[in-house]
Amino acid sequence: MAAYLEPLARLINALSKLPGIGQRSAARLAYHILQQPEPEVRELAEAIYKARRDIGTCPICGDYTVGDQPCGMCQDPRRDGSVLCVVRDPRDVAAMERSGAFRGRYHVLHGTISPSENRGPGDIRIKELLVRLRDGEVKELILATNPDLEGEATAMYLARLVKPLGIKVTRIAQGVQAGADLEYADDVTLSRALEGRRDM
Known about the structure:
Layout: H1 6-15, H2 23-35, H3 38-54, E1 55-57, E2 64-66, H4 72-75, E3 80-87, H5 90-99, E4 104-108, H6 126-133, E5 140-143, H7 149-162, E6 168-171, H8 187-195, E7 198-199
Parallel strand pairs: 3-4, 3-5, 5-6
Antiparallel strand pairs: 1-2, 6-7
C-alpha cells in the first residue's frame, strides 16, 4: 500500500475489512468515495455510525431492533407464537421474511456450534431459547440453520436437546443448497424449504 497517500491507504484498509471486499474492490470504493461531494460522504459516514449506535438486539428473539425494545415481529399479535423458527443470525430472519412463507416467530442464535472456531453451545443463544420454550406456547420448532457442517451440527444438537420437552422439531427441507447461506437463497427456494421441512 506504499503507493497510496496515508489517508487513502487507511480508507482502503478499513474498507477491505468488510466481508467480500478485497484490496482491489476496497481501492475502487475508496476512489469512488473521494470523487463524491463532501455532503454525500458525510451522509454515508453518519448513516453507518447511527445504524451501529441505534440498532440493538431484541431481548426476546435476538433479531435486530431499535435500541433495546422488543422487535416488531415479537410485538405483532398476528404472528403465530406456537411455531418458532431458529436461525443463525438476523440476516436469515430477513431472508425468511422476504419469502413470505413464514408467519410464526423467530429465535436468532447469533452463531452456530463450531469446534474449529472454539464456539460451543454456551457461546450462542441456546439458553435463551430453552427459556422461551418453558412457557408451553411453542408446539413446533423449525431448525433453519444453514445446511453446512456447523449448521447441521447445531440443528442436531438442538433437536436432541428439545425433543424430550415434547415439542415437535422439524428441519427445513434441503431445497437450500448444501453449504449455502440462507441470505442468498431466492424466495421460491426458501418457501419450498419451509413447506418441505421434516421431523428431526
